[in-house]
Amino acid sequence: MRPPEFWSAAASGRDAALALRTLLAPVSWAYAWGAQQRQRTTVSRHAPVPVICVGNLTVGGAGKTPIARAIRAKLGPNAHLLSRGYGGRLQGPLRVTPDMDAREVGDEPLLHAADGPAWIARDRLAGALAAAQAGAHAIVMDDGHQNPALAKDVSIIVIDPAFGIGNGAVFPAGPLRERLQDGLRRTDAAVILYNTAGVSPAAQDWLAGFTKPVLAARLVPTAEVPTGKLLAFAGLARPEKFFDTLAGMGGKIEEAVPFGDHHAYAEHELALLAQMAQERGAQLITTEKDAARLSQEWRARVAILPVAAQFDDQAALSTLLEPIRASMSAHAL
Questions:
Q1: Exposed, middle or buried: residue 11 (CB in 10 Å: 0-12, 13-18, 19+)?
Q2: Cis omega (within 30 of 0) for bond into 172
Q3: Distance, first Cα to last Cα, the chain
Q4: What span, in angstroms and rounded, lies between the C-alpha atoms of 242 and 162?
């Protein structure tokens, strides 16, 4: 799914679709009420080890996965990663290995499995229990801020500063998964994830009343950006974020082709992309997440831009994670 233009705060004129937003308002109220009731009526249960949730407030990607990977790396090898396995057929709980198929377990879990122990589970509590039983001293959950079934010890939201909260309306009139004040009330820290290292942090106006820590992080390449012309493609909630990141890192993008989030690439689509690249004398390039959905044959023909989230203030991140570290140390005794 590609987010509609009217979800953007910058939308104006016809793109703002004011009439459509007005028609959708009652549905948004019902959606917000349902989300609020779910939080109020669900009894949250604690895992036997601490849980840190990396989520967001909006539909689609804000950069949760690179932040979750960075936090897990900070906590060490005894921290296991838990995700829903969106886009995969299997329900879990299941421990994921890097050689599994994205059609079975989803694309993001394969990235996490390359870093260390990773699990998928539609039932987050069951997944947390399975991870703890397998030796996890802490659990980093990729997404799940709106899921109250599993109690969180630390809840972090990730923000794409180019999108923020869009038009500020709740789905489907806007991108918010719940009312802003409800989501922020359960948040222990916010991370603003910038595309490149050359951008100075800028405050998000809607965070003005938020009194918890606000950290800045940036996407940095972990490999050299290919030289020469590039034909970039990506199936993300906001593919433009990848294209901007690639350009900001010096990539010479000849053409950028966006697809919907978690797009399952068909053979004819990849063949067309390869033909376009050949005609332009360009190299195909995509994200690690997209590459996880390609066959081995196509993966060998496409350049991949691996990136990692790098926090500006490592001391602030360490302070935020200190209670988790202390609990992990106690658990190891």
A1: middle
A2: yes
A3: 47
A4: 12
Amino acid type, 324: I
Q: Is 0.90 surpassed by the pTM of this model?
A: yes
Alpha-carbon gap, residue 267 to 106, rounded angstroms: 19
List the chain pLDDT tens, one digit each, 333 residues.
Answer: 567 778 877 655 665 567 787 889 999 999 999 999 999 999 999 999 999 999 999 997 788 999 999 999 999 999 999 999 988 999 989 999 999 999 999 999 999 999 999 999 999 999 999 999 999 999 999 999 999 999 999 999 999 998 899 999 999 999 999 999 999 999 999 999 988 655 555 568 899 889 999 999 998 889 889 999 999 999 988 888 889 889 988 899 999 999 988 899 999 999 999 999 999 999 999 999 999 999 999 999 999 999 999 999 999 999 999 999 999 988 766
Residues in the chain: 333
Mark out the alpha helices in 42-147 (DSSP H runs): 64-75, 102-105, 108-115, 124-133
d(CA 14, CA 34): 30
Do residues 227 and 285 touch, judged by C-beta distance below 8 A?
Answer: no
C-alpha 116: how far from its chain's center? Answer: 18
**Contact residues for 209 (Cβ-Cβ < 8 A; gap 6+):** none
Q: Which long-range contacts (CB under 8 A, 24 or more apart) does 316-321 make?
A: 316/213, 316/215, 317/71, 317/74, 317/215, 318/74, 319/213, 320/154, 320/156, 320/188, 320/189, 320/213, 320/215, 321/52, 321/71, 321/74, 321/75, 321/154
Distance CA 328, CA 75 (A): 9
Q: What are phi and psi of 176, to 5 degrees?
A: -65, 140
Token pair, residue 274, equals: 């390869």
Residues 6+ positions from 104 with CB-CB distance below 8 Å = 88, 89, 90
